[in-house]
């Protein structure tokens, strides 16, 4: 489903470029992809919110997007409990088991397809490998949400994100 959304977002971007009429827009493609070009009138970019994966009714982070895409992969709404442990729906191909180190991975990249693919990869790979990727790809930034020290808490790990690109809003 998200791949189809990415295709429609990218196709719309091509149409926009060819038409020459629309310069500033934000497009939401499906459940996990957003493409932003230009900025909202009077603002630096387009502010979009990310929900807390353990409390979906609560906004946790806001991102300011300008001429980039955002993709998110996580267990916020698609999960199950087994033996008292929460598991997400994304399977780690290395083990054949649900990936369980990251609650949510959000990626900012030049295209929606790249952001979506990397969000899923970072969700599976975890913080160390995601950090290494971002360090060697300056056009890619990410924010990982991992389980916090206390039950029900989360820790936020920004990777290659500038302070002007995001803010935590749950405090």
Explain how this protein is built.
There is one protein chain. The chain contains three helices and 13 strands; from the N terminus they run αββββββββββααβββ. The strands form four sheets. The protein has a six-stranded antiparallel sheet with strand order 1-2-5-10-11-12. A three-stranded antiparallel sheet has the order 3-4-13, with no helix packed on it. It has a two-stranded antiparallel sheet with strand order 6-7. The mean pLDDT is 87. 36% of the residues are buried. The chain has 171 residues and is an alpha+beta fold. The N and C termini lie far apart (33 Å). A hairpin with a 4-residue loop joins strand 8 and strand 9.
- Report Rg: 16 Å
The first-to-last residue Cα distance is 33 Å
Report the mean per-residue pLDDT as an integer.
Answer: 87
Task: Report the sheet-strand fraction.
Answer: 35-45%
Number of strands: 13
Shape: globular
Query: Secondary-structure element sequence?
Result: HEEEEEEEEEEHHEEE
- From the structure provided, what is the oligomeric state, counting identical versus distinct chains? single chain
Helical amount among residues, as a percent range?
Answer: 10-25%
Q: Characterize the main sheet.
A: 6 strands, antiparallel
Unreliable stretches (pLDDT < 50, length at least 5) are none
Biggest sheet strand order reads 1-2-5-10-11-12
**Secondary-structure content class:** alpha+beta
Treating each run of at least 4 consecutive H or I residues as one helix, how many helices?
3
